Amino acid sequence: MRLFVPKRSVARRLLCCALLLLHVPGSVLAEDDAAGDKAGLEKDSYRAPRWAFEFKGGKYKPDLEEYATFYGDDKNTIWAIAGAYRFTNWLELGAELAYANDEGVGVLPNNGILGGQVDYSLMPLQVFLNFRYDESADQLFVPYFGVGIATAWYKQKIDQQPDREGRSDIGGAARVGLQVQITNSDRHGATYLKGNRRLQSYLFLEGQVFSTEVDNIDLGGEVYLLGLRLEFD
Protein backbone atom coordinates (compact mmCIF):
# COMPACT_ATOMS: atom_id res chain seq x y z
CA MET A 1 0.00 0.00 0.00
CA ARG A 2 1.38 3.34 -1.00
CA LEU A 3 0.97 6.18 1.37
CA PHE A 4 -0.19 9.48 -0.07
CA VAL A 5 2.57 12.00 0.42
CA PRO A 6 1.84 15.57 -0.66
CA LYS A 7 4.19 17.17 -3.01
CA ARG A 8 6.70 19.48 -1.41
CA SER A 9 5.08 22.65 -2.81
CA VAL A 10 1.65 21.65 -1.52
CA ALA A 11 3.05 20.75 1.87
CA ARG A 12 4.83 24.07 2.00
CA ARG A 13 1.59 25.89 1.23
CA LEU A 14 -0.27 23.98 3.91
CA LEU A 15 2.48 24.76 6.40
CA CYS A 16 2.31 28.46 5.50
CA CYS A 17 -1.47 28.43 5.90
CA ALA A 18 -1.14 26.76 9.30
CA LEU A 19 1.41 29.30 10.41
CA LEU A 20 -0.84 32.10 9.10
CA LEU A 21 -3.84 30.75 11.01
CA LEU A 22 -1.75 30.59 14.14
CA HIS A 23 -0.59 34.14 13.54
CA VAL A 24 -4.03 35.65 12.86
CA PRO A 25 -5.51 35.21 16.37
CA GLY A 26 -2.41 36.74 17.86
CA SER A 27 -2.63 39.66 15.45
CA VAL A 28 -6.33 40.14 16.17
CA LEU A 29 -5.72 40.05 19.91
CA ALA A 30 -2.87 42.50 19.51
CA GLU A 31 -5.09 44.81 17.45
CA ASP A 32 -7.90 44.50 20.02
CA ASP A 33 -5.48 45.30 22.82
CA ALA A 34 -4.15 48.27 20.85
CA ALA A 35 -7.68 49.48 20.12
CA GLY A 36 -8.60 49.07 23.78
CA ASP A 37 -5.52 50.96 24.87
CA LYS A 38 -6.30 53.69 22.33
CA ALA A 39 -9.93 53.93 23.49
CA GLY A 40 -8.79 54.09 27.10
CA LEU A 41 -6.27 56.76 26.23
CA GLU A 42 -8.89 58.79 24.34
CA LYS A 43 -11.28 58.40 27.25
CA ASP A 44 -8.66 59.54 29.74
CA SER A 45 -7.65 62.49 27.56
CA TYR A 46 -11.20 63.63 26.74
CA ARG A 47 -11.78 67.27 27.58
CA ALA A 48 -15.33 68.57 27.16
CA PRO A 49 -15.94 72.01 25.62
CA ARG A 50 -15.81 74.58 28.39
CA TRP A 51 -18.69 76.96 27.50
CA ALA A 52 -22.36 76.07 27.24
CA PHE A 53 -25.53 77.90 26.20
CA GLU A 54 -29.11 76.61 26.57
CA PHE A 55 -32.55 77.49 25.17
CA LYS A 56 -35.50 75.81 26.89
CA GLY A 57 -39.22 75.99 27.49
CA GLY A 58 -41.92 74.08 29.24
CA LYS A 59 -44.42 74.18 32.07
CA TYR A 60 -44.27 75.98 35.41
CA LYS A 61 -46.46 74.95 38.34
CA PRO A 62 -46.46 77.82 40.87
CA ASP A 63 -46.63 77.30 44.61
CA LEU A 64 -49.04 80.26 44.87
CA GLU A 65 -52.23 79.28 46.66
CA GLU A 66 -55.43 79.36 44.57
CA TYR A 67 -53.44 80.02 41.40
CA ALA A 68 -55.91 77.95 39.37
CA THR A 69 -58.81 79.96 40.80
CA PHE A 70 -57.49 83.25 39.46
CA TYR A 71 -55.79 82.03 36.27
CA GLY A 72 -57.92 79.06 35.23
CA ASP A 73 -55.10 76.46 35.39
CA ASP A 74 -52.53 75.37 37.97
CA LYS A 75 -49.74 75.47 35.33
CA ASN A 76 -48.25 78.14 33.11
CA THR A 77 -45.84 78.27 30.16
CA ILE A 78 -42.26 79.30 30.94
CA TRP A 79 -39.23 80.08 28.75
CA ALA A 80 -35.59 80.28 29.81
CA ILE A 81 -32.03 80.83 28.63
CA ALA A 82 -28.95 79.69 30.51
CA GLY A 83 -25.19 79.84 30.23
CA ALA A 84 -22.47 77.91 32.03
CA TYR A 85 -18.73 77.47 32.30
CA ARG A 86 -17.33 73.97 32.86
CA PHE A 87 -14.38 73.80 35.23
CA THR A 88 -14.00 70.07 34.53
CA ASN A 89 -15.92 67.45 32.55
CA TRP A 90 -18.14 66.84 35.57
CA LEU A 91 -18.54 70.27 37.20
CA GLU A 92 -20.00 73.51 35.83
CA LEU A 93 -21.19 76.87 37.19
CA GLY A 94 -24.02 78.66 35.43
CA ALA A 95 -26.89 81.13 35.53
CA GLU A 96 -30.42 80.95 34.16
CA LEU A 97 -33.02 83.64 33.45
CA ALA A 98 -36.63 82.57 32.86
CA TYR A 99 -39.89 84.34 32.01
CA ALA A 100 -43.52 83.41 32.58
CA ASN A 101 -46.67 85.44 31.97
CA ASP A 102 -50.31 84.66 32.66
CA GLU A 103 -53.66 86.45 32.50
CA GLY A 104 -56.68 85.88 34.69
CA VAL A 105 -59.22 87.60 36.89
CA GLY A 106 -58.61 89.46 40.12
CA VAL A 107 -60.64 90.20 43.24
CA LEU A 108 -62.61 93.44 42.97
CA PRO A 109 -61.66 95.74 45.87
CA ASN A 110 -65.21 96.99 46.57
CA ASN A 111 -67.07 93.70 47.00
CA GLY A 112 -64.35 91.03 47.26
CA ILE A 113 -65.64 88.90 44.38
CA LEU A 114 -63.77 87.79 41.27
CA GLY A 115 -63.78 90.26 38.44
CA GLY A 116 -61.50 92.49 36.41
CA GLN A 117 -58.41 91.66 34.40
CA VAL A 118 -55.13 90.66 36.06
CA ASP A 119 -51.79 90.25 34.29
CA TYR A 120 -49.02 88.43 36.17
CA SER A 121 -45.38 88.27 35.06
CA LEU A 122 -42.54 86.45 36.77
CA MET A 123 -38.83 86.48 35.88
CA PRO A 124 -36.87 83.97 38.01
CA LEU A 125 -33.07 84.10 38.11
CA GLN A 126 -31.01 81.12 39.25
CA VAL A 127 -27.30 80.64 39.84
CA PHE A 128 -26.51 76.93 39.90
CA LEU A 129 -23.74 74.36 40.22
CA ASN A 130 -24.25 71.27 38.05
CA PHE A 131 -22.63 67.84 38.46
CA ARG A 132 -22.48 65.87 35.18
CA TYR A 133 -21.54 62.32 34.22
CA ASP A 134 -19.66 63.06 30.97
CA GLU A 135 -16.63 60.86 30.37
CA SER A 136 -16.18 60.59 26.59
CA ALA A 137 -16.83 62.56 23.39
CA ASP A 138 -19.13 59.89 21.94
CA GLN A 139 -21.27 59.42 25.07
CA LEU A 140 -24.92 59.42 23.97
CA PHE A 141 -26.68 60.04 27.30
CA VAL A 142 -25.40 62.56 29.87
CA PRO A 143 -27.27 62.67 33.21
CA TYR A 144 -26.79 65.55 35.63
CA PHE A 145 -28.12 67.19 38.77
CA GLY A 146 -27.55 70.59 40.34
CA VAL A 147 -28.18 72.90 43.27
CA GLY A 148 -28.29 76.67 43.44
CA ILE A 149 -29.90 79.87 44.66
CA ALA A 150 -32.88 81.71 43.20
CA THR A 151 -34.63 85.06 43.21
CA ALA A 152 -37.40 86.49 41.02
CA TRP A 153 -38.74 89.79 39.72
CA TYR A 154 -42.53 89.96 39.63
CA LYS A 155 -45.21 92.33 38.36
CA GLN A 156 -48.95 92.13 38.78
CA LYS A 157 -51.32 94.46 36.94
CA ILE A 158 -54.88 94.40 38.30
CA ASP A 159 -57.83 96.46 37.01
CA GLN A 160 -58.85 99.27 39.36
CA GLN A 161 -55.86 98.60 41.63
CA PRO A 162 -52.25 99.81 41.78
CA ASP A 163 -49.62 97.60 40.14
CA ARG A 164 -47.62 95.36 42.41
CA GLU A 165 -44.00 94.76 41.47
CA GLY A 166 -40.61 94.10 43.02
CA ARG A 167 -38.05 91.39 43.69
CA SER A 168 -38.31 88.41 46.01
CA ASP A 169 -35.84 87.25 48.63
CA ILE A 170 -33.00 84.81 47.93
CA GLY A 171 -34.12 81.18 48.05
CA GLY A 172 -32.93 77.72 47.08
CA ALA A 173 -33.17 75.68 43.89
CA ALA A 174 -32.44 72.18 42.64
CA ARG A 175 -32.54 70.49 39.23
CA VAL A 176 -32.06 67.13 37.57
CA GLY A 177 -31.93 66.24 33.90
CA LEU A 178 -30.87 63.95 31.07
CA GLN A 179 -29.17 65.11 27.87
CA VAL A 180 -29.00 63.23 24.54
CA GLN A 181 -26.12 64.13 22.23
CA ILE A 182 -27.29 64.98 18.69
CA THR A 183 -24.14 66.50 17.14
CA ASN A 184 -22.43 63.26 16.16
CA SER A 185 -24.57 60.80 14.23
CA ASP A 186 -21.48 58.63 13.64
CA ARG A 187 -20.63 58.65 17.37
CA HIS A 188 -16.96 59.47 16.62
CA GLY A 189 -16.62 62.49 18.86
CA ALA A 190 -17.13 66.21 18.76
CA THR A 191 -17.75 68.25 15.68
CA TYR A 192 -14.64 70.29 14.93
CA LEU A 193 -14.88 73.78 13.53
CA LYS A 194 -12.05 75.89 12.14
CA GLY A 195 -8.85 75.54 14.12
CA ASN A 196 -9.32 73.81 17.46
CA ARG A 197 -12.80 75.16 18.15
CA ARG A 198 -15.42 72.52 18.87
CA LEU A 199 -19.18 72.36 19.02
CA GLN A 200 -21.33 69.70 20.67
CA SER A 201 -25.11 69.86 20.90
CA TYR A 202 -27.70 68.08 23.03
CA LEU A 203 -31.44 67.80 23.45
CA PHE A 204 -32.47 67.47 27.08
CA LEU A 205 -35.28 67.07 29.57
CA GLU A 206 -34.98 68.87 32.90
CA GLY A 207 -36.97 69.16 36.10
CA GLN A 208 -36.54 71.98 38.60
CA VAL A 209 -37.86 73.10 41.95
CA PHE A 210 -37.18 76.51 43.45
CA SER A 211 -38.45 78.55 46.36
CA THR A 212 -38.25 82.31 46.76
CA GLU A 213 -40.52 84.47 48.92
CA VAL A 214 -41.84 88.02 49.15
CA ASP A 215 -43.90 89.01 52.21
CA ASN A 216 -44.07 85.30 53.21
CA ILE A 217 -45.61 84.43 49.82
CA ASP A 218 -43.69 81.76 47.90
CA LEU A 219 -43.26 82.67 44.23
CA GLY A 220 -41.41 79.44 43.45
CA GLY A 221 -42.71 76.13 42.19
CA GLU A 222 -41.97 73.17 39.94
CA VAL A 223 -40.63 73.53 36.39
CA TYR A 224 -40.51 70.93 33.59
CA LEU A 225 -38.43 71.85 30.55
CA LEU A 226 -37.39 70.61 27.11
CA GLY A 227 -34.32 72.31 25.67
CA LEU A 228 -31.37 72.55 23.33
CA ARG A 229 -27.81 72.83 24.70
CA LEU A 230 -24.77 73.99 22.72
CA GLU A 231 -21.24 73.43 24.07
CA PHE A 232 -18.23 75.14 22.51
CA ASP A 233 -14.64 76.21 23.11
Characteristics:
233 residues; alpha+beta; two-stranded antiparallel ribbon; Porin; 2 helices; single chain; 2 domains; eight-stranded antiparallel β-barrel
Topology:
Elements: H1 8-45, E1 51-62, H2 67-71, E2 76-86, E3 91-107, E4 114-132, E5 141-158, E6 164-167, E7 171-181, E8 191-192, E9 198-211, E10 213-214, E11 217-218, E12 221-232
Antiparallel strand pairs: 1-2, 1-12, 2-3, 3-4, 4-5, 5-6, 5-7, 7-9, 8-9, 9-12, 10-11
Summarize the structure.
The chain is of the alpha+beta class. Helices cover 18% and strands 53% of the residues.
- Give the uncertain stretches in residue-range form: 1-8, 17-22, 24-32, 34-42, 185-190
Task: From the alpha carbons, calculate the radius of gyration and give it in angstroms.
Answer: 30 Å
What profile does the largest beta sheet have? 8 strands, antiparallel, barrel
* CATH T-level topology of the largest domain: Porin
Number of domains: 2
β-strand percent reads over 45%
Class per helix and strand makeup? alpha+beta
Question: What is the helix fraction of residues, given as a range?
Answer: 10-25%
Total strands: 12
First-to-last CA distance: 81 Å
Assembly annotation: single chain
- Give the strand order, joined by hyphens, for the main sheet: 1-2-3-4-5-7-9-12
- Secondary-structure arrangement, i.e. CATH architecture of the largest domain: Beta Barrel
Shape: elongated
Q: What is the element string, with H for helices and E for strands?
A: HEHEEEEEEEEEEE
Broad CATH class of the largest domain = Mainly Beta
Mean pLDDT: 81
How many distinct helices? 2
